[in-house]
Amino acid sequence: MTEEISKIGFIKELCATADNMYRLGWDERNGGNISYLIPEAEVKQHFDCSKVLRTIPLGFDAKELVGKYFLVTGTGKYFKNVKEDPENNLGLIRIAKDGVSAELIWGYSDGGKFTSELPAHLMSHITRLKVDPENRVVMHTHPTNLLAMTYVHELNTKTFTHTLWEMCTECIVVFPDGVEVLPWMLCGTNEIGEATAEKMNLSRVVVWSLHGVYGAGKSLDETFGLIETVEKAAQIYMLTAHLPRINTIKDEEMLQLVKRFGVQYRKDFLNVK
Ligand code: 13P
Ligand code: ZN
What residue numbers bound the domain in which 127 lies? Predict the structure, then answer.
């Protein structure tokens, strides 16, 4: 990592996040990808945005994001290596005026390009920015226990969310909007991107059954923490699912939590009056 690049806040932050995700075993090989919306003024403090290194076709329409800058992990790149060599493993792109291509401002130094999951990322950004104008992060990863849970639990948004909420007291407070569950779909396609973005209208977490998860949030920390909490709940489930359940958090108790913390939750997911 060269001295100058290592000082740039948003690059340093993304490197640290990828490193943490790798350390937790969520991102084997090239598994996982992150996109981080960077305000133009912040980009211009560090980069000459009039110089475009390359123009790369998107393969879908992202005209709602024209002129926006994203720091995005590269396709085929390992999270394990991001911190050591951000210039090769990351890229800073701007959505071009035509809405169907990206202008590379920095990165992908070996001639590579953005993640194959860019459709799901940018389509999710479009959805989340409408729900919350402060949304800046979309994160995809393969958390071990959550992935395992999709092999043994019914793939239904309501029951899957309810099971996760039961696993740790604070789950319903951290993800009151629950988790939306998609069936197995072919990854890297516009179709899975569209399906993910549609689910993002309802929840900041979308489970890709038998594959991984998508999370969205205002910051890298918040989005990481969201997925971390879902994964922790899935871990408790996987540690206990095969054992007789003697105790559980009751729906009435979850209701006390949402009232105490004042969060808007998916009311139809609890069986209380
Ligand atoms: P990329 O290497 O293209 O980012 O793909 C990794 C992945 O997790 C696909 O779902
Ligand atoms: Zn994946």
Answer: 117-273
Q: Is 141 exposed, middle or buried (0-12, 13-18, 19+ CB in 10 A)?
A: buried
Which phi and psi angles does 217 have, rounded to 5°? -175, 180
Domain-ending residue, one of 115, 142, 165: 115
Q: Which tens digits make up the pLDDT trace of 210-241? A: 999 999 999 999 999 999 999 999 999 999 99
Which secondary structure element, helix H or strand E, spans residue 33, and what is its range? strand 33-38
**Backbone angles phi and psi of 161, in degrees to 5:** -60, -45
d(CA 53, CA 194) in angstroms, rounded, equals 29
- Torsions phi, psi of 211, nearest 5? -140, -60
Which of 31-45 are b and which e, b meaning 16 or more Cβ less than 10 Å from the residue's Cβ?
bbbbbbbbeeeebee
Tens digits of residue pLDDT in 262-273: 999 999 999 997
167-186 burial, b at 16+ Cβ within 10 Å, e below that, comes to bbeebbbbbbbbbbbbeeee
Please state, as a whole number, how many other Cβ atoms lie within 10 Å of the Cβ of residue 57. Answer: 11
Q: Do 36 and 71 belong to one domain?
A: yes
Report how far residue 57's alpha carbon sits from residue 191's, in angstroms, rounded to the nearest whole number.
Answer: 17
Contact 119, 200 (CB under 8 A): no
User: Is this structure's pTM higher than 0.90?
Assistant: yes
Ligand 1 pocket, 76 CB below 6 A? yes
Residue 161 Cβ < 6 Å to ligand 1: no
Mutation to probe ligand 1, out of 56, 73, 90, 116 (largest number of atoms < 8 A from CB): 116
Q: Check pocket membership of 75 for ligand 1, CB cut-off 6 A.
A: yes
Residues 111, 157: one domain? no
